[in-house]
Specification:
Number of helices: 26
Structural class: alpha/beta
Strand order of the largest sheet: 1-5-6-4-3-2
Low-confidence stretches: none
Largest sheet: 6 strands, parallel
Helix content: 25-40%
Mean pLDDT: 96
Length: 794
């Protein structure tokens, strides 16, 4: 069975009574936030007009979280700990807002929510009220790094925060409903990556209150022995606190937290004094308490406390339930607010003294406003890693292989600062970024065997867990506490973290409007092994749709880059690693591809974001007959392949080639900060010529980004859900992105070509037939495709 905490008289009677009173104060504030519009101190009998017209919020998890917060305050003071609180249970906002208000950190950030009667009224009124704050723990909540609106990510965020923070303890409250999500269920394994010498500690507190919205929770209903086996099997040493009698529960919780803190200190002191980084069994607490604890026992003859009925608002108070006004008042007065707050509404001094002071308050912990701790990366000169491009297409290189050496140098330069990490789900080598292992290892606390590669107790790479969820969560926690990083992933499977990206983007959007939140380092995605390089893995590995998903978010948050070669990739990644408060998505290939731009030209092109490639165009001094545009390494290759055919067979045709690196350049400047003005867009794409646009992703994204432009003659070719295990070029043929189809598109759109175009179109159709026959027989692409090089004279 799980070890049960014993009430050993940890708390002297006076301290126990004071902590219980503090807990009552937090519960009182929580109920007030849910219900009250006026009369915050109940100085007069409660009336229906004192109650909000629309009551929205969640009570069930709140009293348990208030209980935990009070007890964490005690151990912070007793042991002088650096701790902050991650609230995993959904919609526990009243608890964190109320506790930060009691400790004073909330009023410091929001002076109008003062620690008096007027401020308490403001605190109550703003909760789940138009123009106010949300019902969950949001960016607006001091001391928070975790958006509580979606469940599953609290524990991975906590581990990310603990990395490279050796003095930090992250208290992570895990709801038993949240524990049923895939990301959280996997996050228990994160102990295999936490180094007791150089990292901090995560203290999970699994809150078993038994119910979700209307169903029981799994972990609360399995036998205690089975729960212990599960948690111990994940590497934890659980201590159980169980009951519903406050006096007993306070003693149990105090004993459990003392045990946990002293065990953490013992683990760290041993590891740091001996250098022994052997993976320990870390302590955790299992708190079993009633859902809706201290709330209404019954409502309308039905049990509420200890059931799913307490999950949201346990008591409807409106014109249709007039009797509930008195029941609400009885509930609130049960906390004896006259003992907790003075006549002016301030917490009485003997209770206020229980909270830590200064930065030791969890609502004021500097790590929770990570931008305040952020230090710039020491950056190498990316130009030193340039591919020597003597002429467009003259050499080939593997773009991410080149990038790997740059990331190696970033890693080495920041080793002493310990503020940069590379994350990925076992794909660092597959994505050809293995140069980083020349200067660091994969952090891994599990056992090792002969033949293992690059595993070490301490390393700057976290890629030994095949979970996109954990990589994303770790990185987000790392960034939110003031560090830098990159997440490299196969393009098709980044969708696994779509929802996590959503929440982080929303976090950034909200924090931009909060002047007290300091800017953090950008969330950088490097998506490789992309759709056009997954011919060997087939249809399951082919999906560029993350770009569409990202483009839905606020323009002042998201950036999307499609560098066509290694030098542009280096320039883009240097920019992304220096940026703040964005989500940067960079898509790059890993196979050998022609290199188009010298480093000098690449920097210029990336700075502009989109431009005419004059060396590939022949419309200088005249209006183009057609514009061939491209975004992405493979579309660029095929556009230039099409241009070479057109220049050979239709030399009189005026062709303009436009390459787009920064996808958001396509939007108007009124929509996105990077967007082109209408005049600049027209100068690239013309106002009326046909545009054949070869795009890396789904074609309709380009139409979405450009729908407001004057030129409606846009024809986009991209991925159309056609693919299988085939050749690289056949992938393009199946999706009509290949050079032969692009040439035919031009002929169809430019009728003045005449008969010469008709004959060239027939040749292209013949080539497609030849291609299909050849790959069926030989299993590889035509020699003229495999051996093609750009050799068109300017």
């Amino acid at each position: 069975m799980i070890t049960e905490a014993r009430p050993a008289g940890v708390l002297a009677p006076d301290l126990l009574n004071s902590m219980d009173a503090y807990w009552r104060a937090a519960n009182y504030l929580s109920v007030g936030q849910l219900y009250l519009y006026d009369n915050p101190l109940l100085k007069r009998p409660l009336e229906l007009s004192d109650v909000k017209p629309l009551i929205v919020g969640h009570w069930g998890t709140t009293p348990g979280q208030n209980f935990i917060y009070v007890h964490l305050n005690r151990v912070i003071k007793k042991y002088d700990l650096d701790v902050f609180y991650v609230a995993g249970p959904g919609h526990g906002g009243p608890a964190l807002v109320g506790n930060t208000y009691l400790e004073g950190s909330y009023s410091e950030v929001y002076p109008d929510v003062s620690q008096d009667e007027a401020g308490m009224k403001k605190l109550f009124t703003q909760f789940s009220f138009p123009g106010g704050i949300s019902s969950h723990v949001a960016p607006t909540t001091p001391g928070s790094i975790h958006e509580g609106g979606e469940l599953g990510y609290s524990l991975s965020h906590s581990f990310g925060a603990a990395l490279d923070n050796p003095d930090l303890v992250v208290a992570c409250v895990v709801g038993d409903g949240e524990a049923e999500t895939g990301p959280l269920a996997t996050a228990w394994q994160s102990t295999k990556f936490l180094n007791p010498v150089s990292d901090g500690a995560v203290l999970p507190i699994l809150h078993l209150n038994g119910y979700k919205i209307s169903n029981p929770t799994i972990l609360a209903r399995i036998p205690g022995e089975e729960l212990e086996q599960f948690l111990r099997g994940c590497g934890w040493e659980p201590v159980l606190v169980s009951g519903d009698v406050p006096e007993v529960m306070h003693q149990l919780m105090a004993a459990a937290l003392d045990t946990a803190v002293e065990r953490i200190k013992e683990i760290q002191e041993h590891a740091r004094s001996t250098g022994d980084a052997t993976r320990p069994r870390w302590p955790m607490v299992v708190l079993r308490s009633p859902k809706g604890w201290t709330g209404p026992k019954t409502v309308g003859g039905l049990q509420v406390e200890g059931t799913f009925r307490s999950h949201q608002v346990p008591l409807l108070v409106d014109a249709e339930h007039p009797g509930h006004v008195a029941q609400l008042e009885t509930w609130m007065r049960s906390y004896r607010p006259n003992e907790l707050f003075d006549q002016d509404g301030a917490l009485v001094p003997e209770l206020a003294a229980l909270a830590p002071v200064g930065d030791r308050r969890m609502g004021a912990n500097p790590h929770t406003n990570g931008g305040a701790l952020l230090r710039d990366l020491r950056m190498p000169d990316f130009r030193l890693h340039a591919v020597d491009v003597t002429a467009p297409g003259a050499v080939e290189a593997q773009d991410t292989l080149v990038l790997g050496s740059f990331l190696r140098d970033v890693t080495a330069l920041n080793e002493r600062q310990r503020n940069f990490r590379l994350f990925g789900p076992d794909e660092t080598l597959s994505n050809f970024l293995g140069a980083v292992f020349e200067v660091t290892g994969r952090q891994w606390m599990g056992s090792t065997l002969p033949g293992d590669e690059f595993l070490a107790p301490s390393g700057r790479v976290l890629d030994s867990m095949l979970s996109e969820h954990q990589c994303e969560g770790w990185l987000e926690g790392y960034l939110l506490t003031g560090r830098h990083g990159v997440f490299n992933c196969y393009e098709a499977f980044i969708h696994i973290v779509d929802s996590m990206f959503n929440q982080h983007a929303k976090w950034l959007k909200v924090t931009k409007a909060l002047p007290w939140r300091r800017d953090i380092a950008s969330l950088n995605y490097l998506l490789t092994s992309h759709v056009w390089q997954q011919d060997h893995n087939g249809f399951t590995h082919q999906d560029p749709g993350f770009l569409d998903h990202v483009a839905n978010k606020k323009a002042d948050v998201v950036r999307v880059y499609l560098p066509p070669d290694a030098n542009t990739l280096l320039s883009v990644m240097d920019h992304c690693l220096r940026s703040r408060n964005y989500v940067n998505v960079v898509v790059a290939g890993k196979r050998a591809m022609p290199q188009w731009l010298s480093m000098e030209d690449a920097v210029t092109h990336c700075t502009e974001g989109a431009g005419i490639w004059q060396w590939a165009s022949n419309d200088q001094g005249a209006e183009p007959d057609v514009v061939l545009a491209c975004a992405g390494d493979t579309p660029t290759l095929e556009v230039l392949g099409a241009v070479s055919i057109l220049r050979e067979h239709l030399p009189e045709l005026k062709v303009r080639v436009v390459n787009v690196v920064d996808l958001m350049k396509l939007q108007p400047e009124t929509v996105h900060p990077h967007g082109l003005s209408d005049a600049d867009y027209d100068s690239l794409f013309t106002r009326d010529k046909h545009i054949i646009f070869a795009f890396h992703g789904y074609p309709w994204l380009i139409h979405r980004l450009t729908y407001a432009r004057t030129n409606r003659n846009l024809h986009v070719r991209g991925y159309n859900e056609e693919g299988t295990i085939t050749t690289a070029f056949d992938m393009r043929v199946q999706n009509r992105l290949d050079r032969f189809h692009l040439v035919m598109d031009v002929i169809d759109r430019v009728p003045q070509i005449g008969a010469r175009g008709d004959y060239l179109k027939q040749q292209m159709q013949d080539k497609l037939v030849e291609h299909n026959r050849y790959i069926d027989i030989h299993g590889q692409d035509l020699p003229e495709i495999r051996d093609w090089t750009w050799s068109v004279a300017p």
